[in-house]
Every structure is written in C-alpha cells, then in structure tokens.
C-alpha cells in the first residue's frame, strides 16, 4: 500500500478537502469555519518525511502569529477562532484575490472595489507592522475575499520579525537584486510586494505578465517596471513602493487614505465598528470549534 493523506479528525474525508498549500491542507468544517492543518501521510515514503516535518514547523509558526492576532485583531486579517493541537480553525472565506483577478477579463472589477481593496490591504499590512511583524509572502494567492467582497489577509507561515531573513521569495512579488539576493524583512521588502499587489488589482494581472518567469524576474531585479501612468490614483504609490521610497507601511497607509479623501481617524472608527461585529460573532464560532474538537476526534 502506498502513502495516503492522514486526516486530522476521523470524521473528515476527501469530501471536506478544500485546498493544499506549501504549509499544509485546508478542510471544510462548516459553512463558517475551515481547518488548516499540517500535511501528514500514513505509510509515507522517506522523501515525504521531510515534507511532513516542514509542514508541521510552518503550521506551528503560523499558530504563533495567529495567537498575537487573536489579542490584536484587524477586520481585514482572517480571524483565527481556535488554535488546536490538530491545526488552526479559521473563518471560512469565499475566494482568493488571485481567483478573482483571473476572472477580471470577462468580469471587470469596479473601480470602487479596487480602491477599497488597496485601502484594506494596505491597512492590514500596516497593522502587522504595528505588531512587529512582516508578512513575508504577500501575493494575491495569500489574500482572501469574504462574502462581502472585502480583503482578508491570510497565510502567515512565512511571517518574520523586521530585520530577519525572508523565508520565501515568490516571483514576481518578492524584491531581489541582480544577484538574486533579497533584502532583510521590513518596509523595503514588504512595500515591494504591496506594489505588485496594487498593480495587479488596478491592471488585472501581474507586472510583466506577458513575459516568461525568467525574463520577468530579470526585469524586476534590474528595477525595470511596467508603466503605471494609466493609474492616476495609485500609480505613484505603486512606483514609489517598488523603489522602496516609503519609510514605513504606516506612511503608505496615510498616503493611500489621503488620496481617497479619508483620514486615519475615520478609518480607526470604521475598524473599531467592524471589530465589534467580529467580537459579537466569535463566541458562537468558538463554541462550534470546541464542540468539533471534543466530539469529532
């Protein structure tokens, strides 16, 4: 018998499977909750043992970040409901930003929605900065959308402290030089990734999407970027972020809000209102997770 995926709970099966990433698997629990857990195989091949060990480490690292976020949540960061031995129980979302952008040629994204996404994403990254964290793998595949089409940032297994070495280098979102070396984690690395996300939101595709990965990577390493002149609102922000001109993500957030005619104080009031709504729903979701763990093991 060959290796097969080990389910974190006996009640789960392949019918509950949603997706698989570098850090682990995601399973459907109910209409509001998913479980993200490390990859484990029964009767694993020797080469799969390393994958299992790495997956376990990445999920544990992500749990540590979510424990911080549970104390200081943000309405545009996926809510962690429970960190259990088996994995992380999270609010279920509708889709990824990557999936939505891939549909944009036939289902154009309204300008107002684009502007909201840029504001929400910048706010979420700035919040991580306040907590002393760098996401480290910011790209549309790691950005979810909820039922109301709001940004929900996720996937924190590559998050590190400022000044640390980046753990991943996903092209074309990660800043590299011509020697393929990355800067330390911090405002320079994070705003480069943010710039590529803003560009993708505004133009519907990655920078230099028409090139193959090698040619695209060469251009970005040489600081050769596609034109953003068609984006009168955020084009300058994108360009400045690519070149690392902002001293912090907080300063980018202020710039974005200013261009939208909003203030940090107004955003703070909206954030608090959204957090109150999240807090009101949390006890029910937490009880559902605890009951699942207690009865479905």
From TrEMBL:
Enzyme Commission designation: 2.7.11.1
Reactions accelerated catalytically: L-seryl-[protein] + ATP = O-phospho-L-seryl-[protein] + ADP + H(+); L-threonyl-[protein] + ATP = O-phospho-L-threonyl-[protein] + ADP + H(+)
GO MF annotations in UniProt: ATP binding; protein serine/threonine kinase activity
Matches recorded under Gene3D superfamilies: Transferase(Phosphotransferase) domain 1
Keywords for this protein: Kinase, Transferase
Aminoacyl-tRNA synthetase recorded as keyword: no
InterPro entries: Kinase-like_dom_sf, Prot_kinase_dom, Ser/Thr_Kinases-Pseudokinases, Tyr_kinase_AS
Domain of life: Eukaryota
Start and end residues of each Protein kinase domain: 12-285
Job description of the protein: Component of the EKC/KEOPS complex that is required for the formation of a threonylcarbamoyl group on adenosine at position 37 (t(6)A37) in tRNAs that read codons beginning with adenine. The complex is probably involved in the transfer of the threonylcarbamoyl moiety of threonylcarbamoyl-AMP (TC-AMP) to the N6 group of A37. BUD32 has ATPase activity in the context of the EKC/KEOPS complex and likely plays a supporting role to the catalytic subunit KAE1. The EKC/KEOPS complex also promotes both telomere uncapping and telomere elongation.
PANTHER family named in the record: SERINE/THREONINE-PROTEIN KINASE TNNI3K-RELATED (PTHR44329)
Oligomeric and partner information: Component of the EKC/KEOPS complex composed of at least BUD32, CGI121, GON7, KAE1 and PCC1; the whole complex dimerizes.
Protein name: EKC/KEOPS complex subunit BUD32
Organism encoding this protein: Cercophora scortea
Source taxonomy: Eukaryota, Fungi, Dikarya, Ascomycota, Pezizomycotina
